[in-house]
Design brief:
Rossmann fold; D-amino Acid Aminotransferase, Chain A, domain 1; 3 domains; 5-stranded antiparallel β-sheet; 4-stranded mixed β-sheet; 13 helices; 13 strands; globular
């Protein structure tokens, strides 16, 4: 049987460069499992922080070490792909954050006319931009916490406009609330604020990351997540729960072993689990996602309410990542998961849009 050549694309030009490397290392190992080794040849492609693509020994060295290479020379030909790219049968991008899960790399891979794992341009872009995502979910009738969208120009405005903006946020959302850049993942740039001083600082910080910022009302709730796998007939995993001792699920808590506990399955009533799974599938379809997504929710136990937090169309695949663990507890092993994702990529590519 002829093996498929899988291009494992990782690194990238975002603040989640190191997380992407960890995800790629785990995926590379899953493809080396006995059931996959006879089906696939995996070719790593490392995108430097300046955007240059590397294959061959350099990419393999990053995969093996799990660490970004330091002091790599800047490439004079950022748009020149390694010759190995022409030999790839299906791409597996695992680029988290901007330029990786926001539709940009998906557009390039679409132009290359080769199958790739994950959502297309529309689903990726809508899933990455928190404001666009929330507008889509509102249109689909999926319950959410109250939120406001603001711009960098409003925040970095004159001394008359900014205080009025803060007044409006306090009136509409109150404290505590969360300030988030619209287009960053992995909790980068997010702050929980409890008073006016913290709000002003958080808005200024978020504006340094993105020109669009979202502010969400805080709720006392349990944080639960559901994984989705498939294309036109997606399936939902069990529901898991995240517990932690930090103030909120920030970057350090998310990617440091021992900082958070994952309960799988979450100790929830069956009716609540079913509602969460149904809403996860509804969100997946609403933004035109495909292949994979992780959908995060707030469950307000006191009232029985469920609010969608966000969808992540290219979730992490590290040792502590929720997406592969949810499927593992649902009965799909890590090697089976990467195999299915490649098959779903081929299926989507062969189906007319």
């Amino acid at each position: 049987m002829t093996k498929l050549r899988v291009g494992l694309l990782f690194g990238g030009r975002s603040g989640e460069h190191e997380v992407s490397i960890k995800s790629a290392k785990a995926i590379f190992s899953a493809f080396a499992a006995e059931e996959n080794a006879s089906k696939y040849d995996v070719v790593p492609f490392y995108i430097q922080k300046d955007g240059a693509w590397q294959a061959g020994e350099i990419a393999q060295q990053v995969i093996t070490s799990g660490q970004a290479l330091q002091n790599l020379a800047a490439s004079p030909n950022l748009w020149q792909l390694p010759p190995q790219a022409a030999e790839i049968d299906v791409w597996f991008p695992i680029l988290h954050g901007p330029n990786g899960e926001d539709g940009t790399i998906q557009g390039l891979l679409t132009l290359m006319q080769v199958p790739y794992v994950g959502s297309g341009v529309l689903g990726s872009a809508a899933g990455m931009d928190k404001i666009a995502m929330k507008d889509v979910f509102a249109q689909a009738g999926i319950p959410q916490v109250k939120y406001m969208a603001v711009t960098r120009s409003q925040i970095w405005s004159n001394a008359c406009i900014f205080p009025k903006l803060c007044d409006e946020i306090e009136t509409n959302l109150g404290y505590p609330c969360f300030v988030k850049p619209a287009n960053l993942g992995s909790s980068v740039g997010i702050a929980k604020v409890r008073d006016r001083r913290e709000l002003e600082t958080a808005l200024d910080n978020a504006a340094s990351y993105d020109r669009r910022i979202i502010i969400e009302a805080g709720v006392v709730a349990r944080e639960v997540e559901c994984a989705v796998l498939g294309n036109d007939s997606p399936k939902a995993s069990i529901v898991g729960e995240i517990t932690y001792s930090s103030d909120f699920y920030d970057y350090e808590t998310k990617y440091t072993e021992g900082k958070a506990d994952l309960l799988m399955p979450a100790p929830l009533p069956e009716a609540i689990v079913s509602q969460i799974q149904e809403l996860a599938l509804k969100a997946f379809i609403a933004i035109n996602a495909s292949g994979l997504s992780r959908v995060d929710f707030f469950y307000v136990e006191a009232t029985g309410e469920i609010f969608i937090n966000e969808i992540n169309t290219l979730p992490g695949f590290t040792a502590t990542s929720m997406y592969p663990q949810l499927w593992s507890h649902t009965g799909v092993s890590f090697p089976q998961l990467v195999d299915q994702l490649v098959q779903f990529a081929i299926e989507r590519h062969s189906t007319p849009n």
